[in-house]
Design brief:
Number of domains: 4
Structural class: mainly beta
Strand order of the largest sheet: 1-4-8-10-11-13-15-18-19-20-21-22-23-25-28-30
Shape: elongated
Keywords: Plant defense
Distance between the termini: 117 Å
Pfam families: LRR_RPS2
Largest sheet: 16 strands, parallel
């Protein structure tokens, strides 16, 4: 049947019970790939009516019977089945599945084991083994009930397996239930996650009798770990991932010698219970070739320790070859390196640093830490950070290419403003991408008056930084930059080649982006509008109603140079402000310019009330109110005239009148009380 068939894929066949129904042996000599996914009612690959009835009655049957032969099968993927408890029959022919290189078993809720004992000689070509989310799995290799339980320890060798993943197997007790050891000479990556019912790694020990010349391993099967470890067990392991495993006694107590993982370059730990920072540091230090370290969801308050080392000694707190450090969700982490210890070259080889969700982290690194080879720096959700790095650290980041700082509530500046003079400025010569997002307290990249150079910066993303008024105070160079993006590819503002100018522009535009009604009441301010607002006519483009009341330190409310921003203002109320002397301060406008403008061209209602020091609306030459309908002036005892050219005291006005030819109001209702016109 189908002698040339090379691939079978059975997907989402909700009522499929078998691929073949009959009594004959089924052989597919050319089949190399078989995938069964989403076939929850599939009892077996090949079955008969009688066998199907036996399965329903006894409830135990392998997926592949001995009558199914795949001499060239290389890839087998089985996902989502709740019927069978084993995959292969014990009577499987020798040449079936012997070419298998990839096996993935996932979401098989009744599966008790993956391999039968008799298959061990047939897996010499297996390279990738993944067993995932099988809630009933007890062991990887099924027990051979015909084997004498008193026989010597069995050695299982998997000569070509390079990737082994055991993930979310809550009932897994051991690899094989009787005394055994394993060897994985080609294994490069090992992941064990969510296996709470078994010790993961333990040092292989010898019985007392070996001391006297016998080489018998004394192992109690019920107490076996998942892996007995010697220097030969994982001789070429490069990447180790351990996460959410309830029993990790020997790692937690530092009982695994350094030579057991001498080739390990990548260590990833997640949700590790019952392990102290001291033991973690000891384990990390035992890995001489460690290049990448990822730690997440753990209670450590520190990662690298250097207790007992003082002064100028060399500190082995972090592995010398470490190039990547990623820390995620460490709620107790307070520092990466203690301030009181000299860092020396501790992070000199680090290329990638990522810190996420470390709520107690107040200081990324002290100023003694240098990042001479750092290319990527990502920090997010670290809400106690007030700045990122100090000036000396920033100056060391000469090869940094990407920096992204997001969602840090308290960060005020990226580079801390220190007392050190930086005469030659700070140059981020290779920085190409900078992202600053969701930083509600950020006011500038650096508040110090230092020169900054970004000769390679091409991408700057800024979003939700409401206090960011200026990028830097000192000289700033960004020759490759073409604008600011709110998200990747979405440019904002009007770019004219000046980063500080566009940051100021965006700051002013986001102050009142859509505000229509503004009321300021009883606040201690000397001025309302920041000088930088004056440069952006659109800062209050939608404002129609403005009320200022009880602001006793205020001297004036507007300057003439910013009146264009209030093009839609219809109602203006100024009430009970003790020190207001004039409403508009004329600055920078010649008489001709004033006459060409209608400064309040949309104003319909004006109220001036309880302003004891108000002497005039403004010093000026010409004002027109084309739409003013109601003007109310109450309790303004020092008001002499509405507008005046005089810049001196009130006595300079010979015959004060409330209105003169300089004030043009087309039609209005006037209400005046308690004025003091001489």
């Amino acid at each position: 049947m189908f002698p040339s068939l090379e691939s079978i894929i059975l997907e989402s066949c909700s009522n499929l019970r078998s691929f073949y129904l009959g009594h004959d042996t089924v052989e597919y000599p050319c089949l190399t790939e078989l995938t069964v996914e989403g076939c929850p009612k599939m009892i077996a690959f090949a079955t008969s009516s009688l066998r199907e009835q036996n399965i329903k009655t006894n409830g135990i049957a392998p997926f592949f019977s001995y009558k199914v032969v795949f001499p060239n099968l290389r890839k087998l993927v089985i996902v989502g089945n709740g019927y069978w408890t084993t995959i292969w029959d014990d009577k499987l022919t020798f040449d079936s599945s012997c070419e298998l290189t990839l096996l993935v078993v996932k979401n098989c809720e009744r599966l008790l084991n993956v391999f039968s004992f008799h298959m061990m000689g047939k897996l010499d070509k297996l390279e990738n083994l993944q067993i995932l989310n099988c809630e009933s799995l007890i062991e990887v290799i099924g027990l051979d009930h015909g084997l004498n339980s008193t026989e010597s320890t069995i050695l299982f060798i998997f000569p070509k397996i390079r990737f082994l993943i055991l993930r979310w197997l809550p009932k897994l007790k051991n690899f094989y239930s009787r005394s055994h050891t394993t060897r994985w000479p080609s294994l490069k990556q090992l992941e064990v996650t969510g296996c709470d019912n078994v010790e993961i790694l333990a040092r292989e020990y010898l019985s007392f009798s070996e001391t006297f010349g016998e080489s018998q391993l004394e192992i109690i099967p019920s107490e076996q770990p998942l892996f007995w470890v010697t220097k030969d067990t994982f001789s070429n392991l490069k990447c180790l991932l351990l996460g959410a495993n309830g029993i990790m006694t020997e790692i937690c107590h530092g009982q695994l010698p350094a030579q057991y993982f001498c080739q390990l370059t990548d260590l990833r730990l997640r949700n590790i219970p019952n392990i102290s920072a001291t033991i973690l540091n000891s384990f990390i230090q035992s890995l001489p070739n460690l290049g990448s370290l990822v730690v997440r969801e753990a209670p450590f308050n520190e990662i690298f320790q250097c207790e007992g080392l003082e002064g100028e000694e060399e500190h082995p707190g972090a592995p010398a070859r470490l190039t990547e450090l990623i820390l995620i969700e460490l709620p107790e982490l307070t520092h990466l390196w203690k301030e009181e210890y000299q860092a020396g070259e501790v992070f000199n080889n680090l290329r990638i640093l990522e810190v996420w969700k470390c709520d107690k982290l107040e200081n990324l690194v002290p100023s003694s830490v240098y990042f001479k080879n750092l290319t990527t720096l990502l920090v997010s959700n670290c809400h106690r950070l007030k700045n990122l790095v100090a000036l000396p650290t920033a100056k060391s980041m000469v090869v940094l290419k990407k920096m992204r700082i997001t969602d840090c509530q308290m960060i005020e500046e990226i580079i801390a403003h220190g007392s050190d003079d930086v005469m030659d400025g700070i140059l981020f010569s290779q920085l190409e991408s900078l992202e600053l997002g969701c930083l509600p307290s950020l006011s500038s990249f650096c508040s110090g008056n230092y020169a900054f150079g970004f000769p390679s910066l091409e991408e700057l993303i800024m979003r939700q930084c409401p206090k960011m008024e200026i990028f830097t105070k000192g000289e700033l160079s960004t020759p490759m930059l073409r604008g600011i993006q709110s998200t990747k590819g979405q440019y904002v503002g009007h770019w004219e080649g000046n980063l500080n100018a566009i940051v100021q522009q965006l700051f002013t535009e986001k102050v009142f982006p859509s505000l229509e009604d503004l009321e300021l009441s009883s606040i201690n301010i000397q001025r309302i509008w920041h000088k930088r607002l004056l440069a952006t006519p659109s800062c209050a483009r939608y404002l129609t109603c403005l009320t200022i009341e009880g602001c006793h330190n205020l001297n004036c409310t507007f300057s003439s140079s910013m009146m264009e921003s209030f093009a839609q203002l219809k109602r203006l109320n100024i009430v009970n402000c003790e020190n207001v002397e004039k409403v508009i301060l004329i600055e920078g406008l010649a008489k001709e310019e004033l006459m060409s403008q209608k400064l309040f061209r949309t104003l319909e209602f004006l109220l001036l009330k309880d302003l004891p020091k108000l002497t005039r609306f403004c010093h000026g030459s010409y004002f027109e109110f084309p739409l003013l309908r109601i003007l109310r002036i109450e309790s303004c005892l020092t008001l002499d005239t509405f507008v005046s050219d005089a810049q001196g005291n009130d006595s300079e006005i010979a015959s004060p009148t409330l209105f003169n030819e300089k004030v043009i109001i087309h039609y209005f209702v006037l209400s005046v009380s308690l004025l003091s016109l001489h």
